[in-house]
Amino acid sequence: MIVKSIPATLTLSVLLLFFAAFSGYVESSKTITITASKFQFEPNEITVKKGQEVTLVIQSKDVTHGLAIKDFGVKTEIKKGQDTEVKFTPTKSGDFEGKCAHFCGKGHGSMKMTIHVVE
């Protein structure tokens, strides 16, 4: 009887270790492409996970724009025709504002986006 239960116990132990090791697992990185144009970001809302590295690939269709996400220390310039890559890892959950950080015209002040960070 004891010999038959050893493989079952071993299998159960391995499964428990596997689930314990990966229960807090977060994907290594998430890449999101964002397009900037007068006077909007597309998409203007994104959802990411707390603790997961995020890479934003931002492109401008028309003029130089910027992106500032104060809560995550992001501030970059986005030149027309060039990809700009920004990485950050959110450390808190909630909703955060990103906004254009380079004056791009009369509607500049309304050029915003929302970053939803979930657990």
Give a short synopsis of this structure.
The chain has 119 residues and is α/β, with parallel strands linked by helices. Helix content is 18%, strand content 45%.
Describe this structure as you would to a colleague:
By secondary structure, this protein is α/β, with parallel strands linked by helices. The chain is built from 1 helix and 9 strands. It has one helix at about 1-20, and strands at about 30-35, 40, 45-50, 55-60, 65-70, 75-80, 85-90, 95-100, 110-119. The strands form 3 sheets. The protein has a 4-stranded mixed β-sheet, with no helix packed on it. It has a 3-stranded mixed β-sheet with strand order 3-9-8, with no helix packed on it. A two-stranded antiparallel sheet has the order 5-6. It is elongated and about 70 Å long. About 20% of the residues are buried. The model has no long low-confidence stretch (mean pLDDT about 85).
Number of strands: 9
Give the integer mean of the pLDDT values.
87
Terminal-residue CA separation: 45 Å
- State Rg: 21 Å
Q: Structural class, judged by helices and strands?
A: alpha/beta
Helical proportion, percent range: 10-25%
In N-to-C order, the SSE pattern is HEEEEEEEEE
Largest sheet: 4 strands, mixed
Number of helices: 1
The unreliable regions are: none
